[in-house]
TrEMBL record:
GO process annotations (BP): DNA replication
Pfam families, sorted: DnaB_C
Gene3D superfamilies with a match to the protein in the record: P-loop containing nucleotide triphosphate hydrolases
Keywords: ATP-binding, Helicase, Hydrolase, Nucleotide-binding
Name assigned to this protein: Replicative DNA helicase
Amino acid sequence: MSKASLTINIAFKIANAYNRNRIIQENENSILGFFSLEIFLEQLAMHIISEQTAIFSFYIQNGSISDEQFLKIIHTVKKLQKAPLYINKIGTLSITQLAAYGQRLKRQHNLIVLIIAYTQLIIKNSRHSLENHIQKITLDLKTLPKKLNIPIVALSQLSHQVKNRTDKCSQLSNLGDFSSIKQNAVIRPFIFKYRKANYLKNVEF
């Protein structure tokens, strides 16, 4: 599973669970924001449908599905339509624009979570060097949750150096130019896609 696929499904599950429970009455009109700077809206929807129905997207796109699978897809689409999930496909976005969007969603729709896919595609201010640009992005992403009073999930690419490691284990150093995430992120989980044994044999418990 790719990081984009994992993240959009996390977003859908949060939104769907919130829609189902409606625990906090005064926040019942709240939404979850998903900002995709890379993947088309149709692809995001396909990711959700494929993961939730356990049907390969290839078969869905080609119509090679059974009647039972078709009903699963219809059920998932209805859940997706009802989920309080705001997906914004912009393509290019500055950190200032992102903050403005977040503040507007918070004010107008009571934003509860903001997910960004992904940090390397936030456009650079021409006045800043690459190093200063990256530091500004990570610092702004650190302060934005405090301003909006919500959690923010931001995806980041790793350098290809991790592929050269014998254990294929991702490390913070593999963030490359975005190493400032080490200092500014509160939680830094990694998606591990290689064989579990490659990792566990070098881990001390």
